[in-house]
Every structure is written in structure tokens, then in C-alpha cells.
Amino acid sequence: MISYEVLAQKPRVFKSVTGLSVDEFDRLFRKFVPKWVEQEYARLSRPDRKRAIGGGRKYALGLKDLLVMVLCWLRLYLNMEALGFFFGVDKSTASRDTRRLLKVLRLLGEATLGWPEPPKRGEGKSVAEALQEYPDLLAIVDATEQCIQRPSDNEEQRRHYSGKKKAHTRKTGIVVNERGRIRDVTESAPGSTHDLRLVVESRVVDRVPEGIALIGDAGFDGLQNHYPERSVGTPHKARRNHPLLPDQKLANRELSSIRMVVENTLSHMKHFKVLMYQFRHPVELYDDAFRAVVGIVNDRIDHRLSLVSAA
């Protein structure tokens, strides 16, 4: 049976199974505990509950083992039958506990989002201090799609069919800074939604501080028309009888090299197979999983940047 105590003795296996090192797990666990206690108290003190707090069936696994189980699900995306078997619980128990912990991980992920407020006049920040604490110069926008099971409802399956992927998908917009740190994400939308429409209707750009330039790929051509007051960079497109000029090709290459950071961040996120394989669960659970992984990746990036700053 898999447990924290067993896995922690083998760090390489621990990271293969959970996607986190033992140190990263311990750091996540310290943040997780107070949120979990808060959420459990709210659940157990709901008005329609018949038992007093402390009554009822207890969790079969300890909290660390429960967190390892959820991370294992995010990392390997096992079905609940297999997940329950490896952790010594029934598949219904594994499913119920995974959903509960996933909501807390989503809250932790959402807590990492947002843009830092720039220093105000009179705060006494030097240029070096300001650049270290408020490094954001760019907002790089992208969208990612993931296959889902074909909806049984005809209208829903039409909405979720992506002509780009030739499959039924959910699409999520993401905004990172020039270091790849995730600053904002949209709610997921059916795969037929255009990238530009998804970002504009979600209003994530409205939350980007003034003075930060926006960069997107060719799918965001026209973003400057929605935000004329902002600096927006998208690739030049070749038109009929108007091929790209050499300086336009050079500008596109430069833009692609800058945008690579968002592709790297998405690659880190998709190490967690729940965001890579076909999503088998209800789409309502998709945003919980996505934002849980956002929190894990952001914590890793923040830790790496703190080590670089301290060096």
C-alpha cells in the first residue's frame, strides 16, 4: 500500500508518483493544513447536518496520505478503482476524498494568482528593489485545450467540438509574466470558443496593471482592437499578395522567442497527466484540477526565483 512514510524514503519515486519533491510536498502541506481545517469546519457545521462535529465516519487515511493520493491522481491520472487499490481504500472513498481535497488545492492555487501592486510614490523603493519585488514587464497570453469525453447531449457536443483539434475539448486561457509565473487564468470554456473571444470575455486583460505590455500568438490577432489604449504585440500575418517582409519575419521570430516562456510553463503543468490525457471526469471538476496544478507550478517557480535572488 502506498503511503507518505514509505514514499518519503525514496525521493525519486516520490517525485515520479506525486510530481513533487519531498521538500515541495512539505511546503505544500504546511499551506494546505489551515485551509483544510477551515473547509472541513464549514462542511461539518452546515445547518442541515444531523450529527455534531466529531460524529460520523472518520477518514480511512491520514491527511498526509490523503494529499499524496490526490497528488498521485493529478500526476498519473489513474482511474478511481486503481487509485483506491494502491492506497487501500474503496474506489468510492478515493473519489469522495479526492474531490474534497481538490477543492482546497484549488483555493491554494487561486491564492497564487494576481498581479503585484507597483510601488507608490513615497514607499522608498530603490530601482533594484522595485525590479526584484515587481518584476512584471510583460503579460504573455495563451490558451490551452484538452480533450474530454464526447458529451451525450447533441448541443453540448457541438459546443465542445474544436475544429482546431478535431476533437471535443475544454479550453482555458492563461496569462504569465516574462519569467513564466502564472498571473491569471480564465474559467474553462467549450472547445469551439475562439482564443480571442475567451480572453476578451473573461476580462483577464482588464486585471493586468496599466503599463504592462501584452503579447500573444496569432490566435490573438485583433486583441489590440479591444484594448486600443494598451501596448499589444501579436505576430505579423501574411495576406494574399502581401507576403511577409524580412523585418516582419524577424519581428515574428523575436516575438516567438519571448512567447516561449508561456509554452514552458504549460509544459510544466502538463507533467501532471490530469491536464494531458483525455479528461474522463465531469467538466465541472476540470477547473478544480487546472487551478490546483497552477498552485503547484507557481509555488515551484516562486521558490526557484527566490533562490536566484538570494544567490
What are the key terms here?
311 residues, alpha/beta, seven-stranded mixed beta sheet
Return residue spans where pLDDT drops below 50 for at least 5 consecutive residues.
none
- Strand proportion, as a percent range, falls in 5-15%
Strand segment count: 7
**Spatial shape:** globular
Strand-and-helix sequence, N→C? Answer: HHHHHHHEHEEEEHEHEHH
Query: In terms of quaternary structure, what is this?
Result: single chain
- Strand-pairing-aware structural class: alpha/beta
Question: What is the overall number of helices?
Answer: 12
Rg: 22 Å
Q: What percentage of residues falls in helices of 4 or more residues?
A: 40-55%
Distance between the termini: 41 Å
* Largest sheet features: 7 strands, mixed
**Mean pLDDT across all amino acids:** 89
Topology (SSEs and partners):
Blueprint: H1 4-8, H2 11-18, H3 22-44, H4 63-76, H5 80-87, H6 91-111, H7 127-133, E1 138-147, H8 154-160, E2 161-162, E3 167-176, E4 182-185, E5 189-190, H9 195-202, E6 213-215, H10 223-226, E7 232-233, H11 246-269, H12 286-310
Parallel strand pairs: 1-6, 6-7
Antiparallel strand pairs: 1-3, 2-3, 3-4, 3-5
